[in-house]
What we know:
Elements lengths: L2 H45 L12 H32 L2
Helix pairs in contact: 1-2
Amino acid sequence: xxxxxxxxxxxxxxxxxxxxxxxxxxxxxxxxxxxxxxxxxxxxxxxxxxxxxxxxxxxxxxxxxxxxxxxxxxxxxxxxxxxxxxxxxxxxx
Length: 93
């Protein structure tokens, strides 16, 4: 294995680790927002109102959820690039 292969492997591992660490917070935020929405839907169904009907348009939580999903997509692309780099590092001799 030459220096280029080693650099690709180390860089790929670093990219995957950084992406995994950066994905934790947006993923936790999306899960928290989903749990809150599920709780609100249960409360509204208990009160006898229709659930899932929003005439007012997107809420702030919907906007935050979309932003967190964009961040997750960005870090997932970086992790995929890191995985490709690792594979290329193993192939290059």
